[in-house]
Amino acid sequence: METPSAAVTITVELPDVQLGVVEAEQARVAPASAELVREMDATCERLRRELSVEQVAALESIRGVRAMFRAWGVDPARYRPSAEALLRRVAQGKGLYRVSNVVDISNLGSIETGWPYGSYNRAAIEPPVVLRLGVAGEKYEGIGKRTWHLDRRPVLADGQGPFGSPISDSVRTMITEASAAVLTVIFAPANAIALEQALERHARRLERFAGTKAVRTAVLAR
């Protein structure tokens, strides 16, 4: 039996944000099951009917995340929050990317709430972790092979440096089929309601669709 990893401590240095954290053990990372695919497709179809691309920007949750970015000195029109990018894709009828059950669950939660979600390979993270702005010279290889320069951008950083962001995440800590311990971080505005419900829904989906055990949840703020 696997020994559960120690809980990840995240220090929040940025204002106007609360982090929802889900830690799960013994994940079985695989392509999404037919049941999960049906849930994703149904949600995408509902949102496609309800939203145009222009209406995405008017959603309360999207406005809240944009205000959060501006409080950090980050232009959300130039550096689009990941949830907004996903919702724009869904509104265009393109649906969600199919990556793996764990990543797909995060993307599903992100379009439901309008908040950026990041899912990370816990084994690749060297605590302590901090949410802060990047500094000059910091960069990482982003998922999709693009190098992200992180000066003045919001980042999650560990002992090795930045690894995640509410914009785009790194290859270093991305979820792979070998990832058994999963850390999910939800980036929600400080005044957002229903974060606890989003955490609970995410934890239950990980258990149901990825077979995780020993799930822990927390809400963190500065």
CATH C-level: Alpha Beta
Query: Mind telling me the CATH superfamily name?
Result: Phenylalanyl-trna Synthetase, Chain B, domain 3
Read across the widest sheet, the strand sequence of neighbours is: 1-4-7-8
Rg, nearest Å: 16 Å
Distance between the termini: 36 Å
**How much strand content do the residues show?**
15-25%
Q: What structural class results from the helix and strand content?
A: alpha+beta
The total count of helices amounts to 6
Number of strands: 10
CATH topology category name: Phenylalanyl-tRNA Synthetase, Chain B, domain 3
Helix coverage percent of residues? 25-40%
Net shape: globular
**CATH architecture label:** 3-Layer(bba) Sandwich
Q: Briefly, what is this?
A:
Helix content is 32%, strand content 24%.
Descriptive notes:
- With 222 residues, the chain is of the alpha+beta class.
- The chain has a single domain, classed as Phenylalanyl-tRNA Synthetase, Chain B, domain 3.
- The chain is 32% helix and 24% strand.
- It has helices at residues 34-50, 53-56, 60-71, 82-91, 101-113, 195-210, and strands at residues 10-12, 17-25, 117-121, 129-133, 139-141, 147-149, 154-158, 161-164, 182-189, 213-221.
- Helix 1 runs parallel beside helix 5 (101-113), helix 4 (82-91) crosses helix 5 (101-113) and helix 5 (101-113) packs antiparallel against helix 6.
- The model has no long low-confidence stretch (mean pLDDT 95).
